[in-house]
Design goal:
91 residues, disordered N terminus, Glycerol-3-phosphate dehydrogenase, mitochondrial
């Protein structure tokens, strides 16, 4: 036993346990970050949203957090990755 980081707990095939209302709510949240409708978010997108609500986070910490969410390690968080994290968080 022992502690496992979120990235070890989640995989591309992790089951998402969200109802339709939750899916709609999390998609809306995702699109607040993905203002250009590219289908992914980056650290820059997250920083802009956080700064708009007067929240400041260390850039290295933000990169570490998003790296855990970025399951395919392409430097971007796609909607399906965002939904998996949200689904795992609601279990």
């Amino acid at each position: 036993m022992g502690y496992r980081s979120r990235s070890e707990q989640l995989t591309k095939t992790s089951e998402i346990n969200l109802d339709n209302q939750e899916v709609a709510r999390y998609k809306k949240r995702f699109h607040k970050f993905d203002k250009e409708s590219r289908g992914f978010i980056t650290t820059v997108d997250v920083q802009q949203v956080l700064e708009s609500i007067n929240v400041h986070i260390d850039e290295n910490a933000l990169h570490e957090i998003l790296n855990e969410v970025d399951l395919n390690k392409n430097g971007q968080v796609e909607l399906d990755e965002f939904m998996q994290v949200r689904g795992a968080g609601s279990m």
